Amino acid sequence: MKMWLLVAIGGALGALSRYWLGxxxxxxxxxxxxxxxxxxNLSGSFALGxxxxxxxxxxxxxxxxxxxxxxxxxTTYSTLNYEFISLLxxxxxxxxxxxxxxSFSFGLICGFAxxxxxxxx
Length: 121
Fold this sequence. Notes:
This is Fluoride-specific ion channel FluC. InterPro entries: FluC. Belongs to the fluoride channel Fluc/FEX (TC 1.A.43) family. There is one protein chain. With 121 residues, the protein is an all-alpha fold. The protein has one domain (3-120). It is built from five helices and no strands. It has helices spanning 3-28, 35-54, 60-74, 77-89, 93-120. The two termini are 31 Å apart.
């Protein structure tokens, strides 16, 4: 199978997963903090850490389909920026900056946790 097709299939599945997980989280979360996007990005960062940790043991097809395709479309930097700017426009400065701080700091922590877990199991 062509590598680009694996990335495309993984990307389609990642985008659909992001859509449905975001809907599910936002159905029960009613706060101002965009928790759906945060859950998606943090879990995606953790999963990418796992992929990177196992990269030498996984076939290239899996790394491309899951790492590049699925996780590339599952996580969303553009939505994070949109939600951050929207919160600023609404005058919710403390929520906006908390969102950015938590997203980036915990994103790095989750990524390193996934990598650490993969390298130490």
